[in-house]
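Support case: nicotinamide-adenine-dinucleotide complex. Customer-provided input:
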Amino acid sequence: MRIAVFGTKPYDRQFLDGANAKFHHDLTYLEPRLEATTAVLAAGFRAVCVFVNDVVDADVLTRLASGGTRLVALRCAGFNNVDLAAAAKHGIAVVRVPAYSPHAVAEFTIGLLLALDRNIPRAWARVRENNFALDGLIGRNLHGRVAGVVGTGRIGALVARILKLGFGCDVLASDPVVDPALVAIGVRYLAMAELLATAEIVTLHCPLTPITRHLIDAAAIAAAPPRVMIVNTSRGALIDTKALIDGLKQRKIGGVALDVYEQEGDLFYADLSNEIIDDDVFQRLLTFPNVIVTGHQAFLTEEALTAIAETTLASVANFAAGRPLGAPFVCVATK
Ligand code: NAD
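Agent response - structure generated as follows:
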């Protein structure tokens, strides 16, 4: 099947080409991300392949439909950037990769937490300058700390296990679906408000929905224990960034590690090192000594990229053959 791959990076191409040896799709790699102005590039392609920051709203779907597109294949798990109702209206099916390597994201989350807690990026920057002083680098043990895991699905459950069994944290969780295996190892489920008011470390692993949008807002930060540490490797808009900055300025928040940011679509995945960044909120965030930001890379392991490529191309093959779309299936076309 002919597939227009939007927002292609060298690693996408490497892993999609590798997986395509089995599927023999006709892949056209496009550098721009999908949005209203670039949707025309998909004209004539029955399938488009997109990632987390491509725009797949009603306007874009209308343009894709008029160009003959019938399948949007997300090479990621989250699908908050897709207007599923509009897709169904236009007869466009949507598939995603619900689970590629939860270990990739869970391990990166722990890496961010340790880097933040023990000031590892600042220590490394000092040593490179032959500055071996330790002032300002004091961390705290994770052992015995109260860690709150918001969302205990594939990724959150792994994070909860590592924190509980690996570090000996007192792990709290909040999720409408209780995981009995986590309860069995001593993870305690609480209502969200109680978790946010109790946990010294909060790590976010729930999807972005209208309910979870700005889950961490001014009220949640005010109710949190002093020096709370917040880690977000899920979706940027789970956090109200302006409220986060206020909490940092008030010295209420002890540290923040982010792999995602609400306005990341304008920034991430591009080399902007020669540009002036217009986003003052993001730039302010980077000035705090107790904030670490990475550019949405928690998924970026060989194992995850292989699984993403294989699942995506298998879904397109199923679609082309009229076979059921199976597990990755998100929405059925109604037209
Ligand atoms: P999952 O669907 O397995 O788990 C999500 C969990 O969140 C579920 O258990 C669900 O019940 C729970 N949940 C839903 N609404 C909730 C709410 N209001 N409060 C608390 N919990 C709630 O998803 P996953 O594979 O574990 O992925 C989690 C998130 O991580 C995804 O939504 C995605 O946005 C993000 N993600 C980020 C990266 C990255 O590279 N940074 C990579 C993959 C996934």
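The first strand starts at residue 2 and ends at 5.

Case will auto-close in a few days if no follow-up is received.
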